[in-house]
Amino acid sequence: MSAGVYAIFDIGKTHKKFLLFDHQYRVISEETQAFPETTDEDGFPCDDLNAIVSWIYASLKAASAEFNITKLNFSTYGASMVHLNRNGEPLTSLYNYLKPMPKEVEKEFYSKYGPKSDFERITASPALGMLNSGLQLYWLKKTRPDVFNKIDQTLHFPNYLSYLFTRKAVAEKTSLGCHTAMWDFDRNQYHAWVSKEGLTGRLPSIQAGTEMITAKIHDRETDCGTGLHDSSAALVPYQLYTDDPFVLLSTGTWNIALNPFCSGRPLTQDELDNDTLYFMNYKGDPVKANRLFLGNEHDRQNQILCTHFHRSRKYHRGIVPDHHLLTQLGFDGDLKQHLAGSDTSLSPLGGDMDPTKYDSYELAYHALNLKLSASQALSIERVLEEADISSIYVSGGFIKNEIFLTLLATHFDTRNIYITSLQRASALGACMVMCSELHEKRLIRDHLKVSKVPGMAISRQTHNT
What we know:
- The chain is an alpha/beta fold.
- It has 2 domains: 4-226, Nucleotidyltransferase, domain 5; 234-465, Nucleotidyltransferase, domain 5.
- The protein has helices spanning 49-66, 103-113, 116-123, 134-143, 145-148, 157-166, 173-176, 192-196, 230-241, 269-273, 294-309, 323-328, 361-384, 402-411, 425-432, 441-447; strands spanning 4-11, 16-21, 27-33, 38-39, 45-46, 68-76, 81-84, 153-156, 171-172, 183-184, 189-190, 206-207, 212-217, 220-225, 228-229, 246-251, 255-259, 276-280, 286-292, 391-396, 416-420, 450-452.
- A hairpin with a 4-residue loop joins strand 1 and strand 2.
């Protein structure tokens, strides 16, 4: 049997990963799975919870036969809840956060607990339907009272995965603070509506993200974490890497700009209207965030271009920034003039691109990145506030997109844009919060190597930036 290792399940919307770390936070084993979606009772696509749980059990059993697993934790995407009966069994599907919330349910809720603008400000939760995971309980109560009445405990997704092994139901603040519409940021407690709707008894006690619970896994005692929301988990290595203020841009299906050095002041209506919100970090402190569905938008728009120009879906990976093409498209260093009419989170471009406007795929792809990076720049600016932030770290899938990065670096010419070599930030963060080595910055710096992104030499026109 080998020395003790740390096991992390990192569950994203697209890929599910199982990683083993040694005591130096080095990955010694990694497995990735993608599961076909199933559908809920309404026929709406959702993750197959049973398949994910079966894979987790099987993966951990196989790893336990070879490794001495001493710590276990989980990071998962947010805005997802698991509703349990008295036997600790799920009562419903793992509802997709993109599932439409019935308009009449939303209208009734905000008429009872509004004004809507005040409610959004207090809970730091723009009205986002099912993405406000707390409203999923209200929706069940109003539309499926037979199911609601059978709920004994409701857990956020990462906390449920921890529960599978500890049998201890807990809530932790990285999930509670994730646009749930449940948390009162003014009073630092559940919002009054949670009690008025009779939800309090169905919600477990709140634990810190550093809390460890002893679990017995394959006849061995193992320290098990509570589970963390993945965006908050991804912040942990950066917060331990430096004490200097920074913004983290975590990219993937969603691009999320995170400022853990924010003032925590109440959000304005304009910020709420533009999908600015607060998360909470593993310590319970506010993190100002702005979200864009940018990875999804990139893939969708790129497919339109590939179809028109008869290119493979991965053709764009070989394209580097072309100064001539960007100049042809009118880029002069300021991205704001390239906003495509709408920068809302679910449709940053405001509609489909028209590939017939461009002579080549290369020109069209540069145009696409101008539009995407313009929305991204505005998203970052929404979380900067007055803080003296000189560094913006970029992690995730977009670090492979040289055009996108170069455009950001050129736009933010008074700040430093860095890409990080850290490919598993959420998993590593979930690992680090469990460990006594938490504050050993040397270990973190060994993993979090950064490189600066150069901007382009552009003669800027005179206009506001």
